[in-house]
Structure formats: C-alpha cells, structure tokens
Amino acid sequence: MLRVSHQVSIPDNEIEINAIRAQGAGGQNVNKVSTAIHLRFDFQNSSLPDFYKQRLLNCSDRRITRDGVIIIKAQEYRSQEKNREVALARLQELIRSVAVTRKKRKPTKPTKVSKLKRLDSKTRRGQLKNLRAKKIAID
Description:
The protein is an alpha+beta fold. 40% of the residues lie in helices and 17% in strands. The protein is built from 4 helices and 5 strands; from the N terminus they run βββαβαβαα. The protein starts with a strand and ends in a 7-residue tail after the last helix.
C-alpha cells in the first residue's frame, strides 16, 4: 500500500513492478542480475480520486503516457530492493506534486516613484556616456 496523503493510498495490486537488467557499464553483475526496476501505474483505471487523475493527465511529464500510464525506471543502485523503494518514492512524489495548487498571480503596476527612479537613472547613464564621448572641436 503506497500512501500518497492521509486520505489517499494506492493498493499494491494496482502498481505493476518488474525487475529488468540494468543498462550501462557494470561488469558481470549487470549481465547476470536483474536489479533495475520498471514500474507501471495505470492511474486511469485505478482507485485514485478523479481530482488526481485529471491533474495527472494535464501534467506535462515525460513519464506519463497519453493513455494514462505512469512509467518509471529505477536503476541507480545495485540492489533490486533499493531500486524498488526509489521507484515507489518517485511515483509518490509525482502524484503529490500534482495535488499542490499554486497561488494565482495578481498582476501589479509599477508605482509612480519607481517609474521616476527608472527614468532618472536612464538620464544619468546617458549623461555619463555623453561625458565619455570624444568631443570634436569645431573651429
């Protein structure tokens, strides 16, 4: 049972976990032992609340397919159990991240004083550049 929040949890039978061989260098251990974890979670056909399902579908994460399946691959560690824990933690983090509602931004206007300061600094900068310029004497 994977706990997402106090009210929401995902039963183990809805999460499909397969052990596969890890990629990359690693010697004989990589060639013999299936330590990497391939996790699939079909949230469209799960017991997850509709709020989470909708948010996950709208999320632009490359681990989420159009069909509503989350695919996570974990292969950092040499231990299959450690990779399983990492994959489940990533799934938990992904689902929690869509539940967070961001504050709506209130558009603000610059104050009159800040506008005057900006224009004043532009004028000063222009005057400084004028002083640096080479003056040509006209006779």
